[in-house]
Structure formats: structure tokens, C-alpha cells
């Protein structure tokens, strides 16, 4: 079995949850959801995850399961409790980002000036609260100059520079852990917390990533390759978590 | 004993231009759409709508009922972006107060507790403090930390939809998530709850666990029996979302005279006709 780009992205998302232990993984989107569930089935067995609705799952189900399909529910997780968990810090969210900048400021609210947007998107949703309360990662399925920008139009998720400027209530629990894209994995493990190229996916060159990024990326001398899925991981994806191959539709390669 | 049963028209007769109206549910889930439809048919205007928004906000914007929207998001869930809300924002036909989802909860909570604000981390460092320049911070008297002071969002009226209710105004939620319906009721001067079915008080506790009777008559002023009253949003376990009609709604925003066509077909009809239409549509999906 050879791994597709989507498979590599799922594993990269799973790796973002490595070491998290017994906290709630809140993935938004198919690939992050598969990543969290794959991590829980392999190297993070105590990770907590939901069905995307109000049920905390006791056993994994397919990402394409309809609401009518049976599932093992281990706890109740309505939105009110979800917010309690956000504020408790026992959570790691992986959100999308229409735009992201070098310090990890994220925008899902609107494009253009907020007062009269060129394109109204979702609104900030939970991003302001998530980012100042617990670890946050991002999944960006199309890594390009429109998404990786010098300055985002509306700061929804808070980046390192703005968290520091806002003071301890914003910065003390702030952490942007990882950014996974269709091309690469990025992090902020640099002296000034600016974005660093952590690895490139198999078949992707460093120059491709640099050309698709609208600001200067920190680059290590040698950029490793993102690890490929193991045979066990591919088997779990194909047999349990994503037999319908929903992941392929979300990743542009 | 008070009988609080009323019609959608009775509820709308209680509303006034310029009121602040909170809407329960979440996104395209369990929205009090039959009451929203009645507002759309009325000549009410200049409303401030407070919502974890879905087609409630979108339709009120499309019909020109909204002066200001207060929201953490507006989304149709299975279709992420709400077309009529987007148009209203992009054409600047409404004012907006954009909030983090948790801040909206705290604003309602503050109103419910009759305090002027509640402190939080959420919003600090984000654009929220820039797009809401009236928001202040507060310094904790205990550890000196600066926190955002989320102002109370007091509602004139809350509109909710539940699965069951009794004539006295006790409302029961049989789905897995109550969202923030109870909080909307607590934050409002008056609360009107529509429900799929009005049942006898003694039947509530046999229909579901006692904790599913989430909103007490202490906080409700009127009960509307409204079968398919949340349609096309979902109202589990009574029915799932009607994705067909939701798609039709979204497509209407792209068509010439799309809103007029949609409203002629789904809004400007008697609610009994709407119920028949919803029943037939759900039966085919």
C-alpha cells in the first residue's frame, strides 16, 4: 500500500496531538478529525474525542458516519460544556484558517475591512477564546499566497506577537502548536515565535513551500521530510476511520 | 392556572420596532423558524438580533428586518456560509457586533445575573477589541490581571423552539444538545417558546428524563404549538435538517429575484401549508 498526500496530511495532523495525553482533541474538518482519531487509536490512547456533535466517543467511528449510526458514547459534550472545557485549558483545537501570518494570527471572519468586508466568512467563531486558553493547531488544505499572508484581515485566532502585546491573560496559556498544510508541516519553535518550516511532505520541495508562502519562513539547514504513515495506520484509515476516502476530497496536491 | 398557549401572530404582536431579540438554537439547528417566518410576514423593523446564527439571521437580513446583528458566527452547518447574512455585511445594510462564541455566552449570562459585565480571557489580543471599541478591560482586584469585561447583552425578547412543552410554559428538549436556549430565556424580559407538540404537564417527565425539561415556566411568557416549527433546521429527534430545502434557500441567494421566489414559496403562505410542505419534503429525504 502506498501513501497518498492525504494520508501523509492525516498522519501529520495526528502527530500534532502526540504527547497531549488525556485532553479533548477538537479537530475541525475531515483530515484533522482523522488525525485525532488515528492518534487515539495508536500512540495517544487516552486522547478524548467527540463525534463532532454533542457526544464524547468511547470508540472510533468512520468520519463519514451518519447521525443515525450507532456509536459508543462515553460522556456528554454539549456546546455549553465544550466552552467550559475551553476555559479549563484541557483541549487542543485544530481549526482551519482562511489566512494565517508569520506569528500564527489566523482569520476565519472576513476578507477585506471588517466594517464592510469584501467577503464575509464565518465570523470569529471560537477562535479568540480557543487561542488564549489552550493549545491550537491549524489545518490549511491549500497552502498558497492567499492563505499565508503578511498580515491577516481580521485577527480571529491570536498569534504570538499579539498575545504577548495583550498581556498575561492572553499569553499565559497561549500556544500555537503546529500548522499542517497540503505541502508541509510548520511550527513556531523559533526565538521570536515566527513560523518555521518543520518538514516538507514527500514529493514537495522546500522552494515550492517558500514560493507558496507570503512571508519569510524560518528554515532549518536541513528540512526533514514529513513521515509517511505506517502500514498499521493506513489499515486503520481504510478499514475503520475513513473507508469512504473522504480525506482525498479535502486535500489539493 | 395560567394557560400560556398563543399563536405565532400573538407572539409577533408583542414585538416592537427596535427591540433586541435573542434567538435560541445553534447554526442551522432547532431554530424557532415558524415565529421567524411570522416576523418576516410582519412590518416589524430595526431589530437587533442576538444569535448563534443560522437561517434565522439570514432570513431576517434578507427581509430587511435587521438593524444590528450580534453573533459569534452565522452558519448553516452543512453549508458553512450564510448567503443572506454575507450579503447584508458586504453591502453594509446592517450593523454588527462580532463576538467569540464564549463571549456571547458570557454576555447573556451577565444579563441573566443582572450584572453589567463578566470577565474573560476570550477576545484579548484578537480583532474583537478593535471592532468593538466600546469594550473595556478590567483589572482583577485579586491578582492584578487585566481581563476583557464582556458587557451584558440584555434581551427584550427571547424566541426558542423545543421538542415538547406544556400549556404552562415548561419546555422540554429531547435532542442531545440544549445549546443555550435556557440562557437566552434567563437573559430576556419575555420569552416565547414554540414546540413540536404541547403535551400535558404529567406527560413531560415520561417523554424524557426530568433534566430534559430545561426551561421552567418561571421564564416563559407564551407557548406556541408549532409542528415542523424548526424546519428546515433540524429538531432531533423529531426530524433531521431538511438539506434539500436548505440547499434551495442557499441557491436562491444567487438567482435573480431569488429571495422573492423563495419567500413566495415558503414564507408568504399559511403556516398550515408550510407544515404540509415540510412533512412532504422530509418524507422524501
TrEMBL record, chain B:
<dbReference type="GO" id="GO:0008410">
    <property type="term" value="F:CoA-transferase activity"/>
</dbReference>
<dbReference type="InterPro" id="IPR004165">
    <property type="entry name" value="CoA_trans_fam_I"/>
</dbReference>
<protein>
    <submittedName>
        <fullName>Unannotated protein</fullName>
    </submittedName>
</protein>
<dbReference type="Pfam" id="PF01144">
    <property type="entry name" value="CoA_trans"/>
</dbReference>
<dbReference type="InterPro" id="IPR037171">
    <property type="entry name" value="NagB/RpiA_transferase-like"/>
</dbReference>
Amino acid at each position: 500500500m502506498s501513501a497518498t498526500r492525504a494520508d501523509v496530511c492525516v498522519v501529520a495532523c495526528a502527530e500534532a496531538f502526540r504527547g497531549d495525553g488525556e485532553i479533548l482533541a477538537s479537530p475541525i474538518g475531515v483530515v484533522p478529525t482523522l488525525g485525532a482519531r488515528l492518534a487515539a487509536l495508536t500512540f495517544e490512547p487516552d486522547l478524548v474525542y467527540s463525534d463532532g456533535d454533542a457526544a464524547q466517543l468511547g470508540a472510533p467511528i468512520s468520519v463519514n458516519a451518519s447521525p443515525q449510526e450507532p456509536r459508543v458514547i462515553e460522556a456528554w459534550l454539549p456546546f455549553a460544556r465544550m466552552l467550559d472545557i475551553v476555559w479549563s485549558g484541557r483541549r487542543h483545537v485544530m481549526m482551519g484558517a482562511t489566512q494565517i501570518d508569520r506569528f500564527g494570527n489566523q482569520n476565519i471572519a472576513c476578507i477585506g475591512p471588517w466594517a464592510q468586508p469584501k467577503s464575509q466568512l464565518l465570523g470569529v467563531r471560537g477562535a479568540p477564546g480557543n487561542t488564549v486558553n489552550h493549545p491550537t493547531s491549524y489545518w490549511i488544505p491549500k497552502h498558497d499566497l492567499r492563505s499565508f499572508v503578511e498580515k491577516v484581515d481580521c485577527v480571529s485566532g491570536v498569534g504570538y506577537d499579539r498575545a504577548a502585546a495583550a498581556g498575561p491573560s492572553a499569553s499565559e496559556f497561549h500556544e500555537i502548536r503546529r500548522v499542517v498544510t497540503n505541502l508541509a508541516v510548520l511550527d513556531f519553535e523559533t526565538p521570536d515565535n515566527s513560523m518555521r518550516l518543520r518538514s516538507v511532505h514527500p514529493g514537495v520541495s522546500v522552494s515550492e513551500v517558500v514560493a507558496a508562502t507570503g512571508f519569510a519562513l524560518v528554515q532549518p539547514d536541513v528540512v526533514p521530510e514529513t513521515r509517511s504513515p505506517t502500514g498499521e495506520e493506513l489499515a486503520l484509515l481504510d478499514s475503520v476511520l475513513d473507508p469512504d476516502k473522504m480525506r482525498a476530497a479535502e486535500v489539493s496536491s | 392556572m395560567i394557560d400560556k398557549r398563543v399563536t405565532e401572530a400573538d407572539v409577533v404582536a408583542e414585538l416592537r420596532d427596535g427591540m433586541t431579540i435573542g434567538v435560541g438554537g445553534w447554526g442551522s439547528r432547532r431554530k424557532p423558524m415558524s415565529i421567524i417566518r411570522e416576523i418576516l410576514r410582519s412590518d416589524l423593523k430595526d431589530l437587533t438580533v442576538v444569535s448563534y446564527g443560522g437561517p434565522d439571521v439570514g432570513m431576517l437580513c434578507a427581509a430587511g428586518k435587521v438593524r444590528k446583528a450580534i453573533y459569534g458566527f452565522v452558519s448553516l452547518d452543512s453549508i458553512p456560509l450564510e448567503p443572506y447574512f454575507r450579503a447584508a455585511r458586504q453591502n453594509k445594510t446592517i450593523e454588527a457586533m462580532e463576538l467569540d462564541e464564549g463571549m456571547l455566552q458570557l454576555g447573556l449570562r451577565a444579563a441573566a445575573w443582572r450584572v453589567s459585565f463578566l470577565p474573560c480571557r476570550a477576545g484579548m489580543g484578537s480583532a474583537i477589541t478593535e471592532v468593538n471599541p466600546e469594550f473595556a478591560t478590567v483589572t482583577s482586584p485579586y491578582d492584578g490581571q487585566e481581563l476583557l469585561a464582556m458587557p451584558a447583552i440584555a434581551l427584550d425578547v427571547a424566541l426558542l423552539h423545543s421538542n415538547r412543552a406544556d400549556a404552562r410554559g415548561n419546555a422540554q428538549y429531547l435532542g442531545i444538545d440544549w445549546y443555550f436556549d435556557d440562557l437566552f430565556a434567563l437573559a430576556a424580559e419575555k420569552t416565547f417558546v414554540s414546540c413540536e407538540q404541547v403535551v400535558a404537564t404529567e406527560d413531560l417527565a415520561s417523554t424524557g428524563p426530568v433534566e430534559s425539561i430545561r426551561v421552567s415556566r418561571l421564564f416563559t411568557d407564551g407557548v406556541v404549538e408549532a409542528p415542523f416549527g424548526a424546519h428546515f433546521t433540524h429538531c432531533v429527534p423529531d426530524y433531521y435538517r431538511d438539506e434539500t430545502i436548505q440547499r434551495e434557500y442557499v441557491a436562491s441567494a444567487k438567482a435573480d429575484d431569488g429571495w422573492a421566489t423563495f419567500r413566495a414559496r415558503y414564507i408568504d403562505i399559511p403556516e398550515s401549508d408550510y407544515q404540509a410542505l415540510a412533512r412532504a419534503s422530509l418524507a422524501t429525504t
